[in-house]
Design brief:
Blueprint lengths: L1 H18 L4 E8 L1 H4 L15 E4 L12 E3 L13 H10 L7 E8 L13 H6 L4 H9 L4 H12 L4 E8 L8 H18 L8 E4 L14 H10 L3 E4 L15 H19 L1 H13 L14 E6 L2 E17 L4 E16 L7 E8 L2 E8 L3
Parallel strand pairs: 1-4, 1-5, 2-4, 5-6, 6-7
Antiparallel strand pairs: 2-3, 8-9, 9-10, 9-11, 11-12
């Protein structure tokens, strides 16, 4: 009986391998708002190769859960926007053999901690979530983003082969070694349940908006950069040259395109140095892998006292946008016209927020935690 069972399992495994297209490369993508994508989808983003596909991880007007669709943005959910994965796949298709297709499985929850993807911790944490906008996103994933990523990866793996895992998360909590341990655990959980070869499937972890671009969460980058030193087959994707949006937490449309190219180049450097050289040469020839500087003459100092914020700026402030970590502007203060002024905080959501100060000379940002 035992021999018969082993024989049946061997036959089933062989049939599964035969059903899989070895030239259909699958990439699992997860994280928070920057992985979901927060920038406008522009005309150039709408032309997509038939060889680039996206697995629907939610239902929507243009998608059905568990089915493949052409990778026209938005990829993550119907209510998301342009993100780094859009140009990750396109960049790969420019250099891989013509018989290769790329498939994306993406799950992202704006503003979430890394523990929302820890299968052993996420249930009680998600049950306590009180923010309506985040609960709306979680509901689309059955209130278990890890399980949705896993189940859709299993569906996708019937057709292709898992080649890499992309993570862009850390703005919320990549500030200590525990974050890195959580990331590694999630990778190992996926590896054990999906049974892929961990030596052949790299983990690519993207930097957040950098300090030189006034990145509000740039202090997460040292922790993110350290993860490659701690775990095997783990690589950090540079955000150099990836310009931010107005909130300095998320990337602009062009910033996401650049970041997607960096993800693709990082993957090729980890798996095929020859293709990486080809990719790098193509990007350089097209002028697409350059760095950029962001300059602003505005500087702002803030001091909080209870539910009041004292602001001192280097030049008159025209307006202040209050932005949530989901990328949504929750309030705008206009016609300030002063260098020094006070801002009331009592009417703002009790969560972590980004304050974007605008003047004639540029913009400056700071973050504030109203949960404390």
């Amino acid at each position: 009986m035992r021999k018969l069972f082993i024989l049946l399992m061997t036959v089933m495994g062989t049939l599964q391998l035969q059903a899989q297209d070895q030239n259909f490369w699958l990439f699992l993508c997860f994280g928070q708002s920057n992985m979901a994508g927060q920038a406008p989808i522009e005309h150039q983003d709408l032309t997509v190769s038939d060889r680039y596909l996206s697995m629907a991880t939610t239902d929507g007007a243009d998608r059905k859960l568990g089915t493949w669709r052409k990778a026209v943005p938005p990829l993550c959910r119907a209510d998301a926007h342009l993100g780094p994965v859009d140009w990750f796949g396109r960049t790969l298709l420019d250099v891989v053999p013509e018989n290769v297709r790329i498939g994306i499985v993406s799950v992202a929850v704006e503003g979430c901690p890394i523990t929302f993807f820890d299968k052993d911790k996420n249930a009680p944490l998600i049950a306590k979530e009180e923010r309506d906008w985040m609960n709306g996103i979680l509901n689309q994933y059955g209130r278990d983003p890890y399980e949705r990523l896993l189940s859709m990866a299993k569906v996708a793996a019937r057709d292709g082969v898992i080649k890499g895992i992309l993570l862009h998360q850390g703005e919320t909590d990549a500030y200590n070694d525990e974050w890195g341990r959580e990331v590694r655990k999630i990778y190992r959980d996926l590896q054990q349940e999906l049974r892929f070869d961990s030596t052949a499937v790299p983990l690519l972890v993207g930097e957040v908006v950098r300090k030189e671009y006034n990145g509000v969460c740039a202090h997460a980058n040292p922790t993110i950069n350290d993860i490659a030193n701690r775990y095997p087959n783990t690589y950090v994707v540079s955000a150099e040259g990836c310009l931010p949006s107005d909130d300095n937490v998320h990337f602009s449309s062009e910033g996401y395109r650049m970041l997607g190219r960096h993800y693709a180049l990082c993957y090729l450097e980890a798996t095929s140095p020859a293709l990486a050289e080809t990719c790098r040469a193509k990007l350089a020839a097209a002028g697409l892998d350059k760095t950029s500087d962001v300059a602003s003459e505005l500087t702002v100092d803030t001091k909080r006292s209870g539910m009041n914020l004292s602001v001192s700026a280097s030049e008159p402030v025209e307006k202040v946008d209050v932005v949530s970590f989901s990328g949504k502007t929750v309030k705008t203060y206009t016609a300030v016209g002063k260098k020094a002024f006070d801002m009331p905080l009592q009417d703002l959501p009790k969560e972590k927020l980004v304050l974007v100060f605008h003047s004639a000379g540029g913009k400056a940002t700071t973050n504030i935690d109203l949960t404390k």
